[in-house]
Each structure stands twice: as structure tokens, then as C-alpha cells.
């Protein structure tokens, strides 16, 4: 009888030495993994080999320790040598007593280490020779003369960008036409649809790979400048911490206060040093509403500023301590008031960055009217809206027409917009009696109600039937005419925030922008307002643009100018920092003031008209949208910053993702402005 054998079957399983394949019939096993076999490190092995390994580790440790000591000595010589004082650096200067103080050693060591890294990063930036002039004295002639000299300076970070392809636009049109033809028939043919999807997938894959390759190349090109920027940020943080610890060492009374006070002191000093460094460092510039300022003293001036602030803080703390000692019973009251002020100042800090600081600016950006008048103005405006809403809700009961058509906008407004308008019109303060006329004027401008009645001449068929004398039945039909009334009710909400530009001069409009940026420093009045999360609880955050994009000098200049106005409120028709911006005003102002493209003041459609459409946008190109509000053509514009991100004047000026459903549904085109 013939012997039946099971068909050979292979099975794989995992062992500690990797995967193996086992023949289930023969039982033979073979390794299929590239994993190295497990080593036996047990003490039962060769004792000589173990000893040799231990000695090797000891030698390595000794070498590493020696190298670490040499590096430490080199850093010390570099840091404290004769050339250290002449070297441009963010390094802080400390006395021997300060360096010997145990409580300062850690902070000083971190500050020195950060400064070393910053100096090394700056030294790694490629250099170039620039031709310049200098004034010298000619002993032969006894007069001064000018001669040409070469100066060594840092090369700017740049990435070579491909030039425009004159065939790009025609090829894009041909490709779009081909895809359109394919889409016409793909619904009827699954094979065509599958091929089309595969083709588009391949196109996206190729584009993705090309972008990754370009990003990798850009990353390598911009690495020295990126490392220098990171090192500079780390040095600023380390120096601020060292100055704070030095202030505590020099003024022990600062550490004797309550924990909240110490936290506030530390944060304040850190902010002061960072602001002073940005303001005074060579090559850095800070812009405020008054314009641009540039310093040349660098970190030395920053340290002096922070030291002066620390001294003043120490004196104030000493006086406060003496007062508390004399008035122990009032300690809790004073502490509570101080805590409230600290919280209030912290809240106002983000708002005051737009229009300066200090008590005068806090007052200038606050609603000064009584709460009763503020709330009464809002209630009176809401009453007018409710009356309009009731009129529309009962329209068919109070009118007699045959047919009704409705085209109604929402009846709504934001209370902070209303109060900011009234405060700006009345120079900061008003009573409810003073603004009754203003409320009616604003209401009439915001809501435009149009009632149109059309009369159509219509008829119906009337039929008469009768029987004559002979018994015959007759039927006669005729038209009966009548008037048919069709009423169309249209309500347009012009948006209360769009009115200020049409009824205010530049100074008043600036006041309105200040009030909107701070919400009158009263977010508690209307916590349900949509502006509270956008301006107070969740203000716009700065987006970290990849360094390879910033290596483009043109784009870097554009973003440097644009990011000055992050958090500025949306003001319809605004086109300058003093009045804030709308979307097209923001783009026009940034393009012009960055020196890249003198557009003047253009609207969104005008910016699209001067731009060249592109299908593959680069950072710095414009993004256009339609249908964001009721207007023909392009209605919104912003800056494309790469990786699907948009910098635009929304409400407020902020970064946002283009991948949301809203922006995808309103997207129109990318365009490249005519850069200089």
C-alpha cells in the first residue's frame, strides 16, 4: 500500500537569536534573521579576556577624563584670556568674589558655557570680504584722505532659488486640461478612475520627495546661521538667570519676601534683560509704534539695564519690608492688593506690547466709563436689535401680501466692538445719556432693511356651464385677472466692526484699535464674547518657521516685518500700525515696508491682479480666497509661510493652517508678487 506523506509545510517562529524557519515534516530548522547571535557574557568565560576588557574600559575612562580636563582648561583660557575683553560676545562680567560665591557658581558656569557656545557658533558662520572706505591722515600733504579697504563680515544666510521657468504656466494649463478631460469620463469607467488616482498619487509622491530633498539641502546650507540663532537664545536665557541670582546675592532682602513676589521679581528681570538685549544688541532691531530703534552696546548695555532694575527693586523691597514691619496688622490687606496688581499687570502685558507700556498706556487702553454706563449702552443696543428681530419674526402677521421672500443676515454684534467705538468717539469716557444718538446712528448704519413689493398681473380660468332651451349643455371659459403681491424682505448686517473706518479720523481710529487690542482691560464685562479667547485667554502664538525657509533673505525680511504685528486686531480698512490692519492692508504694508515690493495700498483683488499665479507655492507667496464675506472676486489674502501654514490678518493677526475645512472651501489661488 502506498505510503501517504503530508505535504511539506514551513512555519516561522521567533527565538532570542532571531527568527527561524521550521519544516513541519522533516523538523529541520534554518535561521532567516540577520540578527546577531546572543553573546555569552557570564563570569564562567575566559578570565583573561574579562580582565583585558576591564583594563580597556579603565584606559578609555582615563583618556576621556584627560580630554575633558583639557577642554575645560581651553575654555577657561578662552574665557579669561587677554583677548576676551576685546572679543564681541554676550558674556557677562563677574568679579572674583562673585565667582567664588557658592550660590552663584552654577548660574555663572551656565552663563559662561552658553557664551562659549555662542562665540563658537558665530565663529563658524562663513565670512566674506566687503569693500569699504576709511578716513586716514596723510602726513605728506598734511590733510585727510579716503582710501579703500576690505572688511571681513559674516555672510548672510541664503539658499539658491531656481529661476522662473517660462514654460511653467503653459505646462500647468495643459496638465489641468488633461486632468479635466480625464475627470469627465472617469465616473463612467472605473479603470480610468483608478489610473487617474494612481497618476495623481505618483505626482504627489514625486513632489513630496523633491520637497524633502530641497529641505535637506537647505538645512545643510543654513546650519551655521541656525546654530548661531539657537546659541544666542540660550545665552540670553542663561545670562538672565545669572543676573537674577546675582541680584539675590547682592540684595538678600529680595529672597525674604513671599514666593509669589520672588516669582514676579524673577520673571520681571528676565523680561527686562531679554528686552534690553534685543534692543541694544548689534544687528538686532525692535520695532514699536514710534518706529525703529537700534543700539550698539550689546549685552553690556543689557546687563547694565537689568542691574539698575535689580537695584531699584531692592530699594523698593527694603522700603516695603520696613512698612510691613511697622504695620503688621495690614500685612494681609497689602499682600492681597499686591497680588491683584500682579495679576492685572501680567494680563495687560500681552496687550501693552502693541502700544507701549507704563501706567499711562494702561489708562489709555482702558474703558474709563462707569460700569453702569457701559452695561447700559450694551443693553440699549441689544434692545434695538430685539425690536428689529420681533418685527421680522411677526412680519407675515402684520402685513398682507400674497407671497414672501426673505434674505436676512444674522442680527448680532460684539459688545466690545460697540464699547470700543463709543469710547473712541468720546475720548475715553461717556455716559448713557451722551451716547443715545450714537447708538441710533450705529444701528442705522449696521442694519439696512429693504422691503420691496412687486405686483404681478395674474389670472385664473373661470368656467360657466348652462343648458339651453333645447336641452343642450354649453361650457364657456374665460380669464379673470387680479393683482398678485410679492414682498421681498432683505436685511443686510454691515458688521459693526466695519463702521469705524468710515466715521473716524486717523487719531480716533487709532484709539479704537487700542481699545480693541486690550478689550478695554475689562475681559470680565462680557466673558462670552468671542474676542476674549482670541485676545486674552488664548492669544495668537508665534509659529516656528523652519530654518531652511528663513535662509532666503527675501522671505526672512518679509517675515521679520510681518511678525512685528502678531496679535494686532482686525480693523476694517486699517493699513498701518497706528490704526491696525485688515487683510489686504496688512499684506500691502508688509510688502512695502520690507522693501520687497512697493505695492501702495491695494485691496485683495488688486494684490491678486499684480501677482503671477503659481501652482507650487514658495514661502513668501500670497494665498487668495473667495467668499469669505459678501463681495465679488477675491475677498481675503495672506502670506504663505510653507508647510500648509498661513500668516494673515484674521482677527487678530495670526498664523493658521490652510488644511482646515473653512480655508479649503474658500481657497482660490496662490500668487507671487512682483518682488524687487
Q: What are the salient characteristics of this protein?
A:
six-stranded antiparallel β-sheet, 19% strand, three-stranded antiparallel β-sheet, alpha+beta, 49% helix, 676 residues, single chain, 18 strands
Notes on the protein architecture:
By secondary structure, the chain is α+β, with helices and mostly antiparallel strands. The chain is built from 21 helices and 18 strands. Among the domains are: 8-33, no CATH class; 251-364, no CATH class; 371-513, no CATH class; 540-672, endopeptidase fold (from Nostoc punctiforme), CATH 3.90.1720. The chain has helices at 47-80, 96-100, 102-123, 168-186, 190-250, 259-280, 299-326, 331-352, 359-364, 371-393, 395-398, 415-425, 436-446, 500-503, 506-518, 531-537, 547-550, 553-562, 583-593, 604-610, 661-666, and strands at 10-15, 18-23, 29-31, 127-138, 143-154, 286-288, 291-293, 403-408, 447-467, 473-493, 575-576, 580-581, 612-614, 622-626, 634-642, 645-649, 653-657, 667-672. The strands form 6 sheets. The protein has a 6-stranded antiparallel sheet with strand order 13-18-14-15-16-17. Strands 1-2-3 form a 3-stranded antiparallel sheet, with no helix packed on it. The radius of gyration is 37 Å and the shape is extended. The N and C termini lie far apart (95 Å). The relative contact order is 0.06. Mean pLDDT is 76; it is low at 159-164, 281-303 and 340-360.
